């Protein structure tokens, strides 16, 4: 069956606009629809609770969900390209856990939130480098079993260190535990500004390297014959990817499976070329995370669920589906 890709994109864009508006009214504090429309139009009482909740809590949170979803979706696509495997999700292979550990270390050192992203990026890069080295053979081919075993082992080790850190933090640990489960409730305009930096840098880098990213999908020998310094380029991509994951984790905790689900679905519909895969993974990553965040706020009227639980509910069955597909050799 022929898929009308343009129609899918138009429907997706309309869905995103509707979801964005709907999400503004979802939460424990109910905002009257007409009052909300007036607030959007710049009318109403600027000192009212509704106005403050709308502009200082809901809108920053929605924008943060979109940006983090964009970072996670596109970093997943890039990671899969780098490892040449659609199951190489930053969450599953331990990159997210290392970023979380880095951010927790920054918290324990009493540093400001501005340093969380830097610490998370550095720890994520070190973990990515170790996994990258251990999973590649001398010929440069990736062993999937080694990748998953090493990634899962490192992830388990880092989670143990995170748990130990929670124990050492003491009374404040509950707040950190909630954050590690995926939390967007702390969104504000300052964080959006900071997160816009890795997003803008990633967009710039991927756009100017879009053709080279397609070439490294081939073998290293073919990429080298086309004039690419493969080793140097892979390290560049690794740094950019971990930079994106690091800042996402630092401001939202561990939100898994976005980088697994979204690139795979985009690849099935739009093809595997990175020229389309990366920007579309960015777009649909934002849509998916905003959808999950709206669910996390709307499921219960008394409390919100950590968004990491919502993405895991979607992602875990999808991972099993990919595993069976890989077993049959269809991946």
Explain what this protein looks like in three dimensions.
The chain has 331 residues and is mostly helical. Helix content is 74%, strand content 0%. The protein has helices spanning 5-23, 33-40, 49-83, 95-108, 116-135, 144-169, 173-180, 189-208, 210-215, 220-225, 230-252, 258-270, 274-298, 307-327. The chain is globular and about 65 Å long.
The arrangement of helices and strands along the chain is HHHHHHHHHHHHHH
Secondary structure class reads mainly alpha
Residue ranges: pLDDT <50 for 5 or more in a row?
none
Helix content: over 70%
Mean pLDDT: 83
Radius of gyration: 20 Å
What can be said about the biggest beta sheet?
none
Instruction: Give me the count of strands.
Output: 0
Report, as a whole number of angstroms, the end-to-end distance.
Answer: 20 Å
Shape: globular
Oligomer: single chain
- How many helices in DSSP terms? 14
Q: How do the strands and helices of this protein lay out in sequence?
A:
Elements: H1 5-23, H2 33-40, H3 49-83, H4 95-108, H5 116-135, H6 144-169, H7 173-180, H8 189-208, H9 210-215, H10 220-225, H11 230-252, H12 258-270, H13 274-298, H14 307-327
Helix pairs in contact: 1-13, 3-8, 3-11, 3-12, 3-13, 4-5, 4-6, 4-11, 5-6, 5-11, 6-7, 8-11, 12-13
What's the gist of this structure?
The protein is mostly helical and about 325 residues long. It has helices at about 5-25, 35-40, 50-85, 95-110, 115-135, 145-170, 175-180, 190-210, 210-215, 220-225, 230-250, 260-270, 275-300, 305-325.
């Amino acid at each position: 069956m022929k898929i009308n890709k343009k129609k899918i994109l138009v429907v997706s864009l309309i869905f995103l606009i509707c979801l964005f508006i709907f999400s503004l009214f979802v939460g424990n504090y109910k905002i009257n629809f007409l009052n909300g429309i007036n607030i959007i139009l710049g009318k109403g009482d600027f000192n009212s609770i509704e106005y403050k909740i709308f502009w200082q809590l809901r809108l920053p949170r929605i924008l943060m969900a979109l940006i983090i979803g964009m970072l996670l979706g596109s970093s997943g696509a890039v990671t899969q390209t780098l490892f040449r495997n659609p199951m190489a999700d930053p969450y599953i292979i331990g990159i997210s856990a290392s970023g979380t550990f880095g951010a927790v270390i920054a918290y324990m050192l009493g540093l400001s939130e501005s340093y969380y992203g830097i610490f998370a990026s550095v720890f994520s890069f070190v973990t990515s480098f170790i996994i990258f080295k251990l999973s590649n053979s001398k010929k440069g081919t990736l062993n999937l079993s080694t990748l998953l075993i090493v990634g899962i082992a490192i992830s388990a080790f880092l989670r143990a260190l995170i748990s130990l850190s929670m124990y050492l933090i003491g009374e404040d640990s509950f707040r950190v535990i909630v954050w590690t489960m995926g939390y967007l409730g702390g969104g504000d305009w300052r964080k959006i500004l900071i997160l816009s930096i890795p997003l803008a840098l990633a967009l710039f880098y991927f756009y100017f390297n879009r053709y080279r990213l397609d070439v490294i999908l081939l073998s290293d020998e073919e990429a080298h014959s086309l004039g690419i310094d493969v080793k140097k380029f892979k390290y560049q991509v690794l740094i950019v990817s971990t930079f994106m994951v690091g800042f996402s984790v630092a401001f939202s905790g561990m939100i898994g499976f976005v980088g697994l689900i979204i690139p795979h679905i985009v690849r099935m519909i739009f093809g595997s070329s990175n020229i389309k895969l990366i920007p579309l993974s960015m777009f649909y990553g934002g849509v998916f995370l905003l959808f999950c965040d709206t669910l996390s706020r709307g499921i219960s009227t008394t409390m919100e669920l950590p968004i990491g639980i919502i993405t895991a509910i979607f992602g875990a069955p999808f991972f099993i589906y990919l595993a069976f597909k890989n077993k049959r050799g269809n991946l």
